[in-house]
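I had to read the description of the data format several times before I understood it. For illustration, here is how one protein appears when written out as sequence plus structure tokens:
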Amino acid sequence: MGTIKVIRIYEHEQPAGYRILVDRIWPRGISKVKAQLDLWAKEIGPSTELRKWFNHDDAKFADFKQKYLAELAVNPAAADFVTRVQTALQQGDVLFLYGAKNKEHNQAVVLKEFVDQKSN
């Protein structure tokens, strides 16, 4: 059984695993070939309104997390996404790839927690 790893897509060294881009918007400067994605789960990312409101402001992260979890709770794509991740984890590690500069305060961190809770 694999684990979920949260990885910035711009990192030069990336571990092996099932690669899922969890951003709603394609990351600048990354070609589709270089990304080597298994899945682009743009429908699972935060809404445009929430993303713009958060604007990667660390002071807003706690509120962002609550609002994003609330979005995920009613997102029709969430259940299928969790199932796909759980299936991929049976084969090995799953990488949640994101473009944000902040490695601690981003949607991929929240999404990992969400999937982990659904898997227990």
Q: What stands out?
A: The longest strand covers residues 4-8. Residues 4-119 form one domain. The two ends are 14 Å apart (CA to CA). The chain has a mean pLDDT of 95.
